[in-house]
Design a protein that fits this description.
Layout (H helix, E strand, L loop, with lengths): L1 E7 L8 E7 L6 E10 L2 H7 L16 E8 L11 E4 L2 E3 L5 H4 L11 E2 L18 E5 L4 E2 L6 H4 L5 H11 L7 E5 L3 H12 L3 E6 L5 H7 L3 E4 L4 H5 L4 E6 L7 H5 L2 E9 L12 H4 L4 E4 L5 H13 L6 E4 L4 H9 L6 E5 L4
């Protein structure tokens, strides 16, 4: 066991505070990672405030982890000391079910083990990236290519794969028209990746406040959804719409923007249920879908793609003492576009 410093929420909705936690000793197939940077995802806030249901406390959030391998177990073959690596939203799965065997560990039928707010196979709670070090099975550690700066790569472990996976699955490519709802931590990565995949990209945002940013990030068009003419002008325009916001939307209105056989895919996860008139799906044979992160192999594919295309997250680097302020700013959409903690400050 190793004692490390961390920032934890001691109880639901409580401010995070500095503490210490125990990391397990390195087992045969484990990798010990010195965490250099940890992204702040809106899902950290949802979980720390029990917006998605009952949670485990104390909670050390953080599933956008970038660091350097400092020790490996005797059976490790995938990573070595000194490697630049990342850890995303999960640290284990059953590895035996059909989904795991198909590279869909995030959909493990027995439930994957989350990087934090979860319970490992040893019965111990998991603690995330707002800490100095983490011990993870080698099969759930990915390689960060040399072309990516570690601080800009950290958010790719959630925001990057969460947008890359559905964009690839639903065919974002040259000749396709893709809309991204929201230009936040997820949305800005969706724009960058959809552009790199060759699609014609439109941002749909509440206002035009971030229009210049959106165009610089790779959007071809930018519309305000608060302007009711937007929905008339863009009716039947898109092959794919990616919703990255965690607020409930008028899904009927957004489905009207799809071409026949188009898809509206949700990666944002509102805490409230939504209402939907199914005629908005039936007309045009449209699809309303969801997507959750990606498997380990696809996460590595995404990192390699981002390195090849020079894609990192747009970040604001903060110290650990600024985490609580950062949470407030994320809730108020006051970040461009991902807070990343310099874990040397923990």
């Amino acid at each position: 066991m190793t004692t490390v410093a961390a920032y934890a929420a001691p109880a639901s909705k409580a401010p995070l505070e500095r503490t210490t936690i125990e990391r397990r000793a390195v087992r045969e197939h484990d990798v010990l990672i010195d965490i250099k940077f940890a992204g702040i995802c809106h899902s950290d806030i949802h979980q720390a405030q029990e917006g998605w249901g009952e949670a485990i406390f104390p909670m050390v959030p953080g599933h956008e982890i970038a660091g350097i391998v400092s020790e490996v177990g005797p059976g490790v073959t995938k990573h070595k000391v000194g490697d630049r690596v990342g850890v995303g939203c999960m640290v284990d799965s059953c590895r035996e079910c059909d989904n795991c065997k198909a590279g869909l560990e995030q959909h493990c039928t027995r439930g994957n083990v989350g990087t934090y707010n979860s319970v490992g196979k040893d019965g111990e709670p998991t603690y995330g990236g707002y800490s100095e070090k983490v011990v993870v099975d080698e099969n759930f550690v990915v390689r960060i290519p040399e072309g990516l700066a570690l601080d800009e790569a950290a958010p790719l472990l959630c925001a990057g794969i969460t947008t890359y996976s559905p964009l690839k699955r639903w065919g974002a490519a040259p000749g396709k028209k893709v809309a991204v709802i929201g230009l936040g931590g997820l949305g800005h990565m969706g724009v960058k990746i959809a552009h790199a995949l060759g699609a014609e990209v439109t941002v749909l945002s509440q206002s035009l406040r971030k229009k210049d940013d959106g165009l610089k990030l790779g959007a071809d068009h930018y519309y305000a959804t608060s302007d009711e003419t937007t929905f008339k002008e863009l009716a039947g325009s898109f092959d794919l719409i990616l919703s990255t916001v965690s607020a409930p939307l008028d899904f009927g209105a957004y489905l009207s923007l799809l071409k026949a056989n188009g898809a509206l895919v949700n990666v944002g996860a509102p805490e409230e249920p939504i209402a939907l008139n199914l005629f908005s799906l039936i007309g045009g044979s449209k699809t309303l879908a969801g997507s959750a992160i990606g498997g380990i192999a696809e996460t590595q594919e995404m990192l390699d793609f981002c390195a090849e295309h020079g894609i990192g997250a747009e970040i604001e680097l903060i110290t650990a003492s600024e985490i609580n302020e950062a949470y407030e700013r994320v809730v108020n959409s006051d970040v461009r576009y991902r807070f990343v903690i310099d874990t040397a400050t923990i």
